[in-house]
Specification:
By secondary structure, the chain is α+β, with helices and mostly antiparallel strands. The chain is 29% helix and 10% strand. The radius of gyration is 19 Å and the shape is elongated.
Length: 58
């Protein structure tokens, strides 16, 4: 699919590869829990409720 813009022609990204098994899927609450815990130093259960596993973070 091609979308015509005022300055140039732009190609939209293909969605054909999204059903392959190498696509990483995660619950965004885990991402929020990781940021709250490792970056901000706050207990994520007080904000998000329940226990969520933190994502591996370097």
């Amino acid at each position: 699919m091609i979308v015509k813009t005022s300055e140039s022609m732009a190609h939209l990204p293909s969605r054909s590869g999204l059903d392959t098994p190498d696509v990483f899927i995660t619950d965004f609450r885990s991402a929020y829990a990781t940021v709250l815990d490792l970056v901000l130093g706050v207990d994520p259960t007080s904000f998000l409720g329940g226990s969520l596993t933190a994502l591996p973070f370097l």
